[in-house]
Amino acid sequence: EELRSLSPTVLTGSSLFALASYSILTLYDYLALQYVGAGLRYLRVAPVSFSAFAIGHNVGLSSLSGGAIRYRAYSLAGLSAARIALVVGFIPLTYGLGAAILLGVTLLLDPAALTALPLGKAWLQSLGVLLLVVPLLYVGWNALRRAPVTIGAWELTPPDARVGLCQCLLGSVDLVLASLVLYVL
């Protein structure tokens, strides 16, 4: 009944934003695979990414369920478990950077939008600034640190600043498009 009550314009608009949102999601994997030096073509990555996100979002525990799909597909493409683990970790980091940017901007411009926290305007705006500092520090660290970070037997080379900026932009655009689906509906 609800679906029939929606106008064709609303259905078309929300469908187009949903399509754009899922298309943007495929870039998470593509960017991550570029970072790890996999060199896989976008047309090979997109179906894997789409499937991993669709199943991960519906089943839950998206890093685990989507990670299993990614592991299966990318190991068949010749990637090592370590490189696949970097891809799987890169994805929530990208999302988190976008979320920090959008929430930070929202708290700066409209702190009253976050009514769940019983804090004053100044506190919420300060929280917004802190959230915006996180992506700035990340991109700055990417620009300045070229030596690998060693954690036990693992060695992690930070992405360059261009990749860090792309992560921030990608995470933000993804969230805006997903929000637009709900806004239009």
Folded structure, characterized:
Helix content is 77%, strand content 3%. The protein has seven helices and two strands. It has a two-stranded antiparallel sheet with strand order 1-2. The mean pLDDT is 92.
| Global structural class | mainly alpha
By DSSP, the count of extended strands is 2
Mean pLDDT across all amino acids: 92
Low-confidence stretches: none
Q: Strand percentage, roughly?
A: under 5%
Quick one: biggest sheet?
A: 2 strands, antiparallel
**Structural shape:** flat
Short summary:
The chain has 185 residues and is mainly alpha-helical. Helices cover 77% and strands 3% of the residues. It has a two-stranded antiparallel ribbon.
Q: What labels describe this entry?
A:
185 residues; mainly alpha
Please outline the helices and strands.
Elements: H1 2-5, H2 8-35, H3 42-59, H4 62-76, H5 81-109, H6 121-144, E1 149-151, E2 154-156, H7 161-184
Helix pairs in contact: 2-3, 2-5, 2-7, 3-4, 4-5, 5-6, 5-7, 6-7
